[in-house]
């Protein structure tokens, strides 16, 4: 086996682990694991929180407009050192269903030890159902570096000053 390896652990025998849809796909599809699970759901204003449990046979979660849910994925994983998983919305879900990731892209660090989850927000009016096994988002693996911070003088480069919109 060549290249970096991600070690994963299924938390349920039938949990689906991330998979690339095609050989050239950058992202690994992530699947909701809702069977018999309790899911935290909050309103946008943050003044109310509810928990919804998925049934064992027909597990689904219904989000109302403006609600945010933490969708469990049914596995945990250890990324190689120097990697992060960037969690991104599937374009079809954003376009067709009005679902977004409020912290997009979300980051899962290499040393995160717990179950992977996806924070998802319902933006369309009405209600949106998410079913057990739905492809809810994708994870793109990215290398990163962690440079040290050093105090010193920071001088302008050229005429580039002024903040947002400084280039025109």
Architecture overview:
The chain contains 1 helix and 13 strands. The model is unreliable at 53-57 (pLDDT under 50). The protein has one helix spanning 91-97; strands spanning 7-10, 27-31, 38-42, 49-53, 60-64, 68-72, 75-78, 83-89, 99-100, 106-109, 117-122, 127-131, 135-143. It is mainly beta. The strands form 4 sheets. Strands 4-3-6-11-9 form a 5-stranded antiparallel β-sheet. A 4-stranded antiparallel β-sheet has the order 2-13-8-10. It has a two-stranded antiparallel ribbon with strand order 1-7. β3 (38-42) and β4 form a beta hairpin.
Topology:
Elements: E1 7-10, E2 27-31, E3 38-42, E4 49-53, E5 60-64, E6 68-72, E7 75-78, E8 83-89, H1 91-97, E9 99-100, E10 106-109, E11 117-122, E12 127-131, E13 135-143
